[in-house]
Amino acid sequence: MRLNKFRNGLKQFKDEYSFRLQEKTVNMYILAVEQLMAYYDKPYSEINSRDIRRWMSSLESKEFKAATVKSELAGIKLFYKYCTEEGLLAKIPVKNIPFPEVEDKFTPLYAAG
User: Fold this and answer.
1) I need a surface site. Which of 19, 21, 36, 75 has the fewest CB within 10 A?
2) Spatial separation of the C-alpha atoms in residues 12 and 61, rounded to whole Å
3) pLDDT higher for 32 or 2?
4) Distance CA 8, CA 113 (A)
5) Distance between CA atoms of 59 and 57, rounded to whole angstroms?
6) CA 67-73-32 angle, 5° bins
7) Is 80 exceeded by the pLDDT of residue 2?
8) Which tens digits make up the pLDDT trace of 41-97?
């Protein structure tokens, strides 16, 4: 039953955001949510901020780049925001989790010389 509720929530999330975001982005966000759920093997409604921080730490220990962790967290934040807006959850467990800092890849031409 819980898995069906989760799958329905993901489908609704995809349907809602497919008009706002590129399909590739929505699919990446859904994959991030699925990876988080698989990591803990518990319902999305039972995931808390500590769980998410530990999951992020596990990604970093697997040498995921900060930009990747940031993208995954963005997807998870948006999914949980959607769930609260739709009444599927009472609160957002990722609300106070900051994004990892990402280094700028580009050096301005005026600073390169």
Assistant:
1) 19
2) 32
3) 32
4) 54
5) 5
6) 100
7) no
8) 888 889 999 999 999 999 999 999 999 999 999 999 999 999 999 888 888 999 899
- By C-alpha distance, which of 39, 52, 43 is closest to 10? 43
pTM across the whole model: 0.84
Answer whether 58's CB lies under 8 Å from 39's CB. Answer: yes
- Residue 24 phi, psi dihedral angles, 5° rounding: -60, -40
Query: Measured between alpha carbons, how far is 51 from 47 in angstroms, rounded to an integer?
Result: 6
How many other C-beta atoms lie within 10 A of the C-beta of residue 69? 20
Whole-angstrom Cα distance, residue 74 to residue 33?
10
Q: In Å, how far are 17, 49, 67, 76, 110 from 95, measured between CA atoms?
A: 19, 8, 19, 10, 38
Q: Count Cβ atoms within 10 A of the Cβ of residue 44 and give its class: 0-12 exposed, 13-18 middle, 19 or more buried.
A: buried
Q: Are 37 and 6 in contact (CB under 8 A)?
A: yes
Comparing 1 with 21, which gets the higher pLDDT?
Answer: 21
Evaluate whether 30 touches 10 at the Cβ level (below 8 Å).
yes
